[in-house]
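Q: Second attempt. The first request was missing the SMILES, so the protein and flavin mononucleotide are both included now.
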Amino acid sequence: MQELQSEFTFKRGLRLKNRLVIAPMTTKMSYFDGVVTGDELAYYGLRSGEAGAFITAAANVHESGKGWEGELGVYDDRFIPGLAKLAATIKQNHTKAILQIFHAGRMTSSSVLNGQQPVAPSAVAAEREDAQTPRELTEEEILALLESYKQATERAIKAGFDGVELHGANTYLIQQFFSPHSNRRTDRWGGSLENRFRFINELVDGVTDVVDRSGVKDFIVGYRFSPEEYEKPGIRFEDTLYLVDQLANKPLDYLHMSINDYNKVSASADYSEKSMLAYVKETLQERLPLIGVGDVRTGADAQNILEHADLAAVGRAVLIDPHWVQKVLDHKEQLIRTELSHYDREELLISNGVWGFLEGMMPERLK
Ligand SMILES: Cc1cc2nc3c(=O)[nH]c(=O)nc-3n(C[C@H](O)[C@H](O)[C@H](O)COP(=O)(O)O)c2cc1C
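A: Got both inputs this time. The predicted holo structure:
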């Protein structure tokens, strides 16, 4: 097993100085139109320079894909100057900057979309309170969305990022194409598992092609996915292993499994012998590197992830202590801040929206 302190080199040549990655976390700090704010730059600057790589908050590739207020935008060239500042802010002390690109699909509302109805593979509402029924995308719109991910990748290259991560997780548009709950289409984009994989297949081919044609050096493409859904019908872990197997043969640089506990075992009885991370790693058979994540609080947690993954991502711990990574790398864990109090709020540069979200997620830590 590799040490957290050891270097890691991706297929496309990008080298990380260590194996800790900051997980993508929405800041809810961008301007109403998706432009990076000064506060947001300060938030990233406070936390960067220690980890091998820093994955940004999700940035929407198309106006119809905005999921919430304060979200980063990458759907137009006018975002490039702000994104360039963001990339430069992250890239201090050799930390690599990865832009996460996404479209919310049905996981948004007309109030966020200036009155427009959300769009998705099919006109099926998500199973959550107040979910709106989206409009089914036309064939032409699907092709345009695939283009918008490619254009977002070109903008990330121009802005000086070291890579993009395709956000195929957390129930957003890419996952909605793969899920039999949100995708009820009867054309070539839906129905069988192979058809539900088609959007992802074309997306990955398109984006990696843009990178390889651009001639830019050391720019990587990663893919994030969630392992299972609870809806009926929904993505089961077996479907995910199919997805992983397909993606493993693509010119990607890594896969990243989004999960809230790295030890989590599948809900499917057929895969109950080990963690989902272990099954995914086994399926990959070293074809692609894997990033693990989920409730890492200590260096030992991160090191445990490396039993079944190549890199360990950490999210909330870095919100609470911006210097968590360096303290872990330096074996100074006794100095890590583990509790959050309202007195720390200004120092930590956490927006109201995220603070409220954290309160809901871990009230016991917010005294
Ligand atoms: C405030 C917050 C915002 C998040 N935003 C994103 C996001 O934009 N994209 C994404 O893929 N995951 C997002 N996540 C999920 C994290 O990347 C991560 O998978 C999750 O927090 C589990 O890791 P942790 O236990 O280390 O926090 C977010 C999590 C938090 C707490």
